[in-house]
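Quarterly update from the structural biology core.
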Amino acid sequence: MALEQRLYKRTELNEHVSLSLVGEGDGMFSEPFDVEIENMSTDGIGFTCQQQLLIGEILTGKIAIWTQEKMDVMMKVIRCTESANGGYSYGCMFVGMEGAEQTRIKIYQMFNPDAD
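Predicted structure, tokenized:
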């Protein structure tokens, strides 16, 4: 069994979204690429994609949470493993998320019995 690395409760979230890499220092963004979000917590998300990313890279995008509300997010890649299907599985930590956004996630998790 794998050692749990998250500090906060995670909730399944099956969502296809497009993310972009944030350029260092120049404010430029890469071409968007598609990812499949698997789960979300108040401190980050787990997703899979075909794009190879580096630990420490910063991503940005919009995520529709369970209530279908869109949240602008910025996150840092903190974990990467190769998937059996040839893609990659990532763990990212949110960067600069406002307290109100974290509260929306916590409230949903309080009323969702399927949250881990």
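The first helix runs from residue 99 to 111.
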